[in-house]
Design brief:
It comes from Oreochromis aureus. The chain is mainly beta. Helices cover 11% and strands 31% of the residues. Strands 4, 5, 6, 8, 9, 13 and 14 form a seven-stranded antiparallel β-sheet that branches. A five-stranded antiparallel β-sheet has the order 12-15-3-7-16, with no helix packed on it. α2 runs antiparallel to α3 (144-155). Residues 1-45, 64-71 and 288-301 have low confidence and may be disordered.
Amino acid sequence: MLCQHIFFICLFSSEEEGVLQVRPVKCENWFLPCFCKMMSSEHLTCGWLQQLLLVLVKLCFTFAGPLRPLIGTECTAKSPASYILVFTGHWSPQAFPKQYPLFRPPAQWSKLIAVSHNRHFRLWEEGAPASAGVQSFAELGVTVELMKTAKEARKKRVVGAMYRTAGIPNGIGHSSTEMLIHPRSSLLSLMVKVIPSPDWFVGVDSLNLCEGNQWKQEVTVDLHPYDAGTDSGFTFSSPNFPTSPPENITKITSQFPNHPANSFYYPRLKDLPPIASIRITRQSRSRDHQTAMSNHILPNSISPRRFSATPLDCEVSLWSSWGLCLGPCSKGGVRHRTRYILLRPANAGTPCPELEEQAECVPHSCMQLQ
């Protein structure tokens, strides 16, 4: 932008103080080094400087666009805060009965990857393309590229720390880690891969744990599945089918993608139930009161949240072609056609219709029995 390269030299008379006021003016993501407001034009050293100043300031505000204040994004707390992050999976056959993975592999969660950072870093972002690290993690559960990116950003002081938890071998379960969050990196982003899946994950993008100069005491977030946009598989066990060109990261809902084959397609539901959640609780920094719950699967003493069972309607194939007519050609013969069950109903869903149908013969499709 024009104003990124403008530096004003504000000249004023030494005979009277306060003739010119120098104020920083924020335009989008830059700062005008000085804004000179003339109290009395006769005190400017050069008349042409006054005119040049006015022209440049007008151009600045013309091209800068609307101002976007950074209210709420900067943390002014005086000290870091200690937190415990608990991830809970709610992926059950009752809440998500359609194509629920029972083996090879069964429903489970990958390790959790979390990063504390400031507003100049994004681990992932809905509506944006997946980075190479996000793609590798969402498709394969490999963390190498993600951690490499975070470590490089840490050298630039835009990332504070990186955390991870153990994976969970079931759809329902808990894992946790301790975190020390500093004011300069008060935002938290995390990802957990849905296993098995083409490129689906749950996560949080830039959750701010600080409000002004105060740390939040507890935060709970329900998590829903996202599609990384790098694989076009529709079901949990779909084979590798790269999306070309890659698409942006999108949220998966009960009706998007709008295809009956999709494992999360539940047209009777307005919203999917949460497939997972996180709870972030601030802890005392005293060693005597610190709860030791780092990087392990929590015992079942923590009761999982209960959700109402999701009804799953029966799905059947199209009718087959009519078979040949059996019986007398003129009268009394019958022909048959069949269909088969694609998806059995569950949780009081619509039952399956008849799978076989018969009708009277027509002369041209008659077959005499010997």
